[in-house]
Write a structure and sequence with these properties.
The chain contains 23 helices and ten strands. It has helices at 5-14, 43-47, 70-81, 88-96, 101-113, 117-135, 144-147, 149-166, 169-181, 185-195, 233-253, 259-299, 303-320, 324-337, 342-363, 368-382, 387-397, 399-407, 411-416, 440-465, 468-471, 497-506, 515-526; strands spanning 21-26, 30-35, 54-58, 61-65, 137-139, 142-143, 216-218, 223-225, 491-493, 530-532. The longest helix has 41 residues, at 259-299. Helix content is 60%, strand content 7%.
């Protein structure tokens, strides 16, 4: 018998059978389902299965945590169910069809930023390292860069990468949009490059340049300011989607024999014109309005209340997918004000949710099955990725999520002290590298609160809430196996569908005892697909 055959059989039944599976794939540790009717999935039965570590639903996908052996489990499951797995993109497409408009928008934003996040993390670490060697006076009032020519050169050199990541970000955004939407990525790169071209007045110099000194294109009947969009997120997103829909339009109407010439030219040129004349300026104004509103809330007389509410609600916001919008706000805040007060609060929320999982890990240290989920989820949250902690642990039990949300109110300390991050991308505990060095002390205090408060609250509540079986100090309840088939409903093991049809037509078990059927019965035992006779 195959290793996962029994558990795969139980899972197939618990998700509602083959007919309830619209699409299925897997990632590093999880099976990902798009179900026809998610209500048919029996969560209690699924989580009682031996190899299942937990379940959650995100972005229209029902996800079952299996662990590092998920690839083997997936192969046996699809073979057992008689269905073919599909790519992750196909599962996403199927899940998107079941989402409402807001969910689709948030999902699209998440997929746009996902390929860019590694660059943001790298850029954030580099800027954090530059802060250490060039901004902190460690040697008689001098920085490391001021005491060593090598470190001075390194400080200047690292800005080459930092500038490429954060100033040239529109190139990455437009490329990511064209990639996601299935159009031509190189056209996206070219459009993004026109938004940050050195021919244009740098976006960071606009505020200090007099209006009559701003260069412009003069078309005779109109003038267009030659302003760059370095670090501008919303303008880049709008420009990217203009290019996508222009390319789709011209690809649809152009004859195939000339599409190679017509489509790129007729898509790119109008997109660049619209980007600089219309959507670029609109995106700039929208971005400034949002940023001014957020910054006003963070620096007003009620900033502490704003911070408390934001810290409390950020984890639920992550679960809805709305948190992707904060990336755009953070980047625009950094562009306009040279730093962001919002990002430190996000890092503190990461830490708080990770601390709740840490407490759960201590409480369930004798529960080997729970530990397989708790430990990786805790590490992930402390490094800035909270989805495994939220969906795999905290939301499952409820009280760790609430305790983490309460601990996230440590953002009050951060905002009250004016803590500012010079870049984004590095979350969780390493997020301190993104913080302006003059605020390291205040942020360290806020981090301590975000670690201690959720841990203590979760531990105290968990002592009362968790059962002995959940803690691992008593045997877990046995998995309920479906009852055996009655004589009126015989169970046969058949290797292929035509044999199943043949057996169903025989209808009487005694036929299997005939010599002509004995060979088929031996074949049946070699395969493990469960079928029922009519």
């Amino acid at each position: 018998m195959a290793k996962f055959q029994q558990d795969a059989t139980l899972l197939l039944a618990a998700v509602g059978g083959k007919e309830n599976i619209s699409a299925v794939t897997h990632c590093v540790t999880r099976m990902r389902f798009v179900l026809v009717d998610p209500k048919q999935a029996d969560i209690a039965r699924i989580e009682a299965i031996g190899y299942v570590k937990g379940t959650f639903t995100q972005s229209g996908q029902f996800q079952v945590i299996i662990g590092n052996e998920v690839s083997e489990f997936y192969q046996e499951f699809t073979a057992l169910a008689g269905i073919e797995g599909v790519s992750k993109d196909a599962v996403k497409a199927a899940a998107t069809a079941q989402q409402n408009l807001l969910q689709r928008i948030m999902s699209a934003l998440g997929e746009i930023f996902a390929p860019i996040i590694p660059a943001l993390i790298c850029g954030g670490l580099i800027l954090g390292f530059r802060n250490i060697i060039g901004e902190i006076a460690m040697f008689d009032g001098k920085t490391l860069a001021q005491t060593s020519q090598f470190w001075q050169g390194m400080y200047q050199f690292l800005w080459l990468i930092g500038e490429a990541v954060f100033h040239m970000l529109p190139i990455g955004i437009v490329w990511s949009i064209t990639r996601k939407m299935g159009t031509t990525p190189i056209l996206g790169i070219v459009l993004g490059a026109t938004l940050v071209s050195p021919q244009l007045l740098n976006a960071f110099a606009v505020a200090s340049t007099e209006a009559d000194k701003i260069p412009h294109w003069d078309f005779g009947f109109m003038q267009v300011n030659m302003i760059g969009y370095q670090g501008q997120v919303i303008s880049a997103i709008l420009a990217g989607f203009i290019l996508v829909y222009l390319e789709r339009f011209f690809r649809r109407i152009s004859p195939a024999v000339i599409s190679m010439i017509v489509v790129p030219f007729c898509s790119l040129v109008p997109a660049v014109i619209i980007a600089h004349m219309l959507v670029g300026p609109i995106g700039w104004k929208v971005g400034r309005f949002i940023v001014d509103a957020v910054y006003g809330g963070l620096t007003s007389s009620w900033s502490v209340l704003f911070a408390a509410v934001f810290g409390l609600l950020y984890a639920p916001v992550v679960m809805t997918g709305l948190h992707h919008m904060t990336n755009a706000i953070d980047i625009t805040l950094t562009t306009k004000f040279g730093g962001t007060i919002l990002w430190p609060m996000i890092a503190l929320s990461n830490i708080a949710q990770g601390s709740s999982v840490l407490a759960m890990s201590v409480l369930q240290r004798h529960n080997k099955r729970a530990e397989q989920v708790n430990v990786p989820a805790c590490i992930s949250a402390y490094l800035g990725v909270t989805e495994p902690a939220l969906f795999g642990v905290n939301l499952k039990y409820g009280f760790p999520l609430v305790c983490g949300m309460i601990g996230s109110a440590a953002a009050i300390i951060s905002v009250g002290s004016g803590v500012q991050a010079l870049s984004i991308g590095v979350g969780g505990i390493p997020g301190i590298l993104s913080i302006n060095p003059q605020f390291w002390g205040s942020f360290a205090l806020a981090m301590a609160a975000a670690i201690v408060i959720p841990f203590v609250l979760t531990w105290l509540v968990g002592q009362k809430k968790l059962s002995a079986a959940e803690k691992g100090s008593a045997p877990a309840p046995a998995v309920v196996v479906p009852p055996a088939a009655s004589p009126a409903e015989e169970v046969f093991i058949a290797p292929i569908f035509y044999l199943f049809s043949y057996l169903c037509k025989m209808n009487h078990r005694q036929h299997l005892l005939q010599p002509c059927c004995l060979e088929r019965w031996l074949l049946i035992q070699q395969d493990q697909t469960i079928l029922k006779s009519s």
